[in-house]
Amino acid sequence: MSLEQLFSPLQVGAIHLPNRIVMAPLTRGRAGAERIPNDLMLEYYALRAGAGLIITEATQISEQAAGWDQSPGIHTDAQVQGWQKITEAVHRQGGRIVLQLWHTGRASHPDFQPGGELPVSASAIAINGYSHTPKGKKPYLAPRPLQLDEIPGVVQQYATATRRAQDAGFDGVEIHAANGYLIDQFLKDGVNQRTDAYGGSIANRARFLLEVTEAVVNAWSSDRVGIKLSPSNHGYNDMRDSDPKATFTYVAEALNAFNLAFLDVFEPLPGHELAAEDDRYTPVIREAYNGVLVVGGGYDAELGEAAISNGEADLIAYGVPFIANPDLVERFRLGAALNSPDPTTFHARGEKGYLDYPLLAKV
Question: Is Oxidoreductase found in the keyword set (predicted)?
Fold first, then answer.
């Protein structure tokens, strides 16, 4: 099958992409206890610079935002310096890289929090499940609802992280508003039970996302900003919404006003382990949103080509295939076989399953 669309260039905001193949954000937990990007991560990202665009692993915007062991941050000078080495390495290889901004909200645990405090969220509703903390596997606890006077400070954390990302040499940022993390916890009424200006109606539940978006755009430039959404009730992080079609139609239309670089929608295809049983909402978002749309979740080269050809999306995000195939773009180009991933090493430590997948042999 010809992959003419996947290998066509595209201008995405201020960033020129040579192909439509996006490396999806992939949390790997290799940043160490200090959460400082390191040489392991530098080699990992540089090897994948053939992607049209790399979106980094989710990166915490503050100490309060942490909720995953040994994930990287962007809130200290040392972290900025660590990321700067990575962006320079990717750029030397001709790549483009944006930083995903992350606040985990209730998907955290006191073991991650400064002073052992409760994590924060829209409402005091716990995730039904377990957190893998630095001190072991523990049940999630009910979070503390953010107070009205605290919300501007959290919005500012996103803006500050954006300026730090710019200092670190990134080509842009992606606001993580998906997969049951803090912004998603405000968006979806399965978690957001507030009765103030940030709860109840869809407009109120979307208010936090829109305030964060405005702050991030003002901290840099709209053509350097993307947003990630996950509309389906796929259950990850125990998330639900009573009317995803209405919620995400409103959100997509509201985001048009910002003239963003892209909108990134995670809604896995049937057969994916996180595929939802209800309707697909990506077509609704595609109709409502005027800009560049990224889709991901279970696509191979042929499905990605078809999605672009059919007008369903402009860019295709690949996650697990990039874990096992640093040279995924070249393999797609040549129609070469793909390495099989080893899920037992996805969130391990060290080089195994991180830097040891073989590249195509050079003739």
Answer: yes
Is 1 inside any structural domain?
no
Query: The CATH number of the domain where 341 resides is what?
Result: 3.20.20.70
CA distance 145 to 103: 14
Token digits for 206?
A: 């979307």
In angstroms, rounded to a whole number, what is the distance separating the alpha carbons of residues 282 and 261? 18
Q: Specify whether 181 is catalytic.
A: yes
Sign of the alpha-carbon torsion through 44, 27, 259, 292: positive
Kindly tell me the burial class for residue 7, based on how many C-beta atoms sit within 10 Å of its own C-beta (0-12, 13-18, 19 or more).
middle
Domain range holding 201? 10-345
DSSP reduced 3-state for 265: strand
Q: How far apart are CA 128 and CA 314, in angstroms?
A: 36
Model confidence at 263: pLDDT above 50: yes
Share above pLDDT 70 across residues of the chain, in percent, rounded to a whole number: 97
47, 41 Cβ separation under 8 angstroms = no
Residues linked to residue 174 through DSSP beta bridges, in sequence order: 100, 226
Domain contains 356: no
SS3 content of the chain, % helix, strand, coil (to 5): 35, 15, 50
Q: Summarize pLDDT for 22-75 with one digit per residue, the tens.
A: 999 999 999 999 999 999 999 999 999 999 999 999 999 999 999 999 999 999
Q: Answer whether residue 358 is part of any domain.
A: no
Tell me which of 44, 45, 181, 289 is the catalytic residue: 181
Q: What are phi and psi of 103, to 5 degrees?
A: -125, 120
Looking at every residue in the chain, the average pLDDT score rounds to 96
**d(C-alpha 204, C-alpha 207), whole Å:** 5
Q: Can you tell me the distance from the alpha carbon of 171 to that of 49, in angstroms, rounded to the nearest whole number?
A: 13
C-alpha dihedral over 141, 187, 74, 34, to 10 degrees? 20
189 within domain boundaries: yes
pTM of the model: 0.97
Domain count for the chain, please give it.
1
Q: 102-118, pLDDT tens digit by residue?
A: 999 999 999 999 999 99
Kindly state the tokens that stand for 106.
Answer: 């209730």
d(CA 102, CA 112): 14
